[in-house]
Write a structure and sequence with these properties.
With about 290 residues, the chain is mainly α. The chain contains 13 helices and no strands.
């Protein structure tokens, strides 16, 4: 029933994402970034993997499966985005290094205004017009500014924000569901014709990211909690940002918004499953 969402302006996607990022800002403390200075190697490894593994996997999948330009743009955008906020919760559920996860999410988010547009241009700029400067401004507007606003509000309006924190997760869920519903409604017919292809690519992208992240930690002989944190951070993207950027900067390619929308649903399902498996294997000496 696409008409259930078509009354919502497509421009509201950025506002919904801003609400989610504002909520993230309300949960942050300066102590969350202490890990950057106390354990910089782990943060560096995680962020380096984030902005290399996922973009390259995205490009590789587009090449191997010879994806149409519209879908390829969306897949690459997902790969070039920073880690998603849900990665911190999944890391906690999987008994991973939560402090490292929060640190990686924070730093990759701060790097996103520069790296996301540059990487997108490098990977798809030869096929489509990519306005790097405009994308940088968009990331600052819909991610960095709301997070900073939430952080400042928490510091100077504590009595108000403490009450908001308890209800913001519900608003975030509604915002994500609305973004996904609106994107699907706007492209209902095209989703029906290419939905299985996009879903398969999204699932493969996510799983390969999780596996590669874990293997990188293992190859570098990191402790298991750090391996888990890096795997989840690499595999779980801020797909809401990918959807927002596709809607704003690639409006002539409607299907570019679909991979981000599907990823938003799938990576939470796969993340919860991975957390359950890892927690079950916690006592296994070979895990």
């Amino acid at each position: 029933m696409p008409e259930s969402f078509l009354w919502i302006p497509s421009s509201s996607i950025n506002w919904f994402l801003g609400i989610i990022m504002f909520g993230m800002g309300l949960t942050l403390n300066l102590s969350d970034f202490r890990v950057v200075f106390t354990r910089p190697l782990g943060v560096f490894i995680g962020c380096a993997a984030q902005f290399s593994v996922m973009p390259l996997l995205a490009w590789g999948l587009c090449y191997v499966f010879n994806l149409p330009t519209e879908i390829a743009i969306g897949v690459v955008l997902v790969g070039c985005c920073p880690g998603g906020t849900a990665s911190n919760v999944i890391t906690y559920l999987a008994d991973g290094d939560v402090a490292l996860s929060v640190g990686m999410t924070g730093i990759s988010t701060l790097l996103a205004p520069v790296l996301t547009p540059i990487l997108t241009y490098a990977l798809v700029g030869h096929n489509v017009d990519v306005d790097v400067a405009s994308m940088l401004i968009s990331v600052v507007q819909v991610v960095i500014f709301p997070i900073a606003l939430g952080f400042v509000a928490k510091r100077y309006m504590r009595s108000v924000t403490d009450r908001l924190v308890s209800i913001l997760p519900a608003f975030s869920c509604i915002a994500i569901a609305t973004i996904i519903g609106l994107i699907m409604a706007l492209n209902a017919q095209k989703v029906l014709s290419s939905g299985l292809l996009v879903m398969g690519i999204v699932i493969l992208h996510n799983i390969l990211g999780l596996v590669c992240g874990y293997l990188i930690g293992r190859l570098l002989n990191l402790e298991k909690p750090k391996r888990i944190a890096i795997a989840i951070e690499v595999g779980m993207q801020n797909s809401g940002l990918a959807t927002s950027l596709a809607n704003t900067h690639f409006a002539t390619y409607p299907l570019a918004t679909i991979p981000g929308a599907i990823f938003s649903v799938w990576h939470n399902l796969s993340g919860a499953l991975i957390a359950a498996v890892l927690k079950h294997k916690k006592q296994s000496p070979t895990a």
